[in-house]
Design a protein that fits this description.
Strands 1-5-6-4-3-2-7-8-9 form a nine-stranded mixed barrel. The chain is of the alpha+beta class. The longest helix has 61 residues. The chain has a single domain, classed as Hypothetical Protein Pfu-838710-001 (Beta Barrel), CATH 2.40.320.
């Protein structure tokens, strides 16, 4: 590793203006089970979360560097967050720092470092569920202050009418300590509906500790045998791309079902017309037969008149002279 005048203040310059740094690393899928056992992480000591994302079917917000999400934390407070990256801290007004859940952080991984600004606000319990099932609009869980933040910092006004609910993603979260790492470690295991999982380990450190935190955490991961994840990508994109594809599949399925239903209805209509035609033809034929029957009916025959019989006991009367 190179050192000297060339490297002096290199990391400090990259995170200038950030309040803290979060260093993240994803664990390859085949090592997740081993990592859970290594750090004694189980369902009995986790914090369970349900995470919902809001974006357009084409992920326009994500492509613009914006993340809009809501979290239901089992047994704890719920919140909504808007996040924007990359951000220039120098262009962020101090007024936003008055909010307790506003922060500017440097997000670092083995391959990149980017500064982001995020703004979270509490959400009443039950609201996120109602939004998810369409009983409340998506805008109901975001505050006017969060929208002003995006407008001022990201230069973006969200059209809530164009957004869809993506999720929920079930997440397990642990916060623990390890003798080999001087910073508390956070582990998150995200579970998608298709059974795929993604595990991320991270630490947070003050900005002045950024250089040693990055080097130290990566050294710690190497020491415990965690391999580099060749397929590493952000958890958010990994989740959103899947849920958007499911949305597209559902749309195609609905279109096919609608087309099939239309064809079935047409078939029934045609069948009904055919049956009606047959009935009409049958009636017409019956009418003709009736008419023919009337025409060919036999005339009644006259009764034969024979000699009248004389009644017993009566004498024939004589004609008077």
């Amino acid at each position: 590793m190179e050192r000297g005048a060339v490297t002096r203040g290199k990391v400090a310059g990259q995170i200038a203006g950030a309040d803290a740094i979060e260093i993240k690393a994803t664990i390859p899928d085949h090592q997740i089970k081993e990592a859970l056992a290594r750090f004694k992480l189980t369902t009995s000591n986790d914090e369970e979360r349900f995470i919902y994302f809001f974006d357009t079917p084409k992920l326009d917000l994500l492509d613009a560097g914006i993340i809009a999400r809501a979290r239901r934390v089992v047994g704890d407070a719920h919140d909504s967050t808007v996040k924007f990256r990359p951000v220039d801290p120098a262009g962020v007004s101090q007024r936003w720092r008055r909010y307790p859940d506003f922060k500017i952080e440097a997000d670092a991984s083995e391959t990149s470092l980017v500064k982001s600004a995020s703004f979270s606000m509490p959400v009443l319990k039950g609201h996120i569920k109602r939004v998810a099932v369409g009983k409340k609009p998506i805008s109901a869980i975001f505050t006017p202050a969060q929208m002003r933040f995006l407008d001022k910092i990201a230069g973006h006004k969200i059209d809530f009418g164009s957004l869809v609910v993506l999720g929920p993603l079930i997440a397990q979260r642990w916060r623990f300590e390890d003798p080999g790492c001087p910073w508390p470690i956070t582990a998150e295991l995200w579970n998608r509906a298709d059974g795929k999982r993604m595990m991320e380990l991270s630490i947070k450190a003050r900005a002045v500790q950024a250089a040693v935190a990055v080097g130290g955490f990566m050294a710690f991961l190497a020491e415990v045998g965690a391999e580099r994840d060749k397929d590493q990508q952000t958890k958010t994109r990994w989740a959103l791309e899947y849920y958007v594809s499911k949305l597209a599949e559902t749309a195609v399925g609905n279109a096919v079902a609608k087309e099939a239903s239309g064809k079935k209805a047409k078939g029934k209509k045609a069948k009904g017309k055919k049956a009606t035609g047959k009935k009409d033809a049958a009636k017409k034929a019956t009418g003709k037969k009736g008419a023919a029957k009337k025409t060919t009916a036999k005339k009644p025959t006259a009764k034969a008149v024979g000699p009248t019989r004389r009644r017993k006991g009566r004498k024939p009367s004589r004609a008077r002279p």
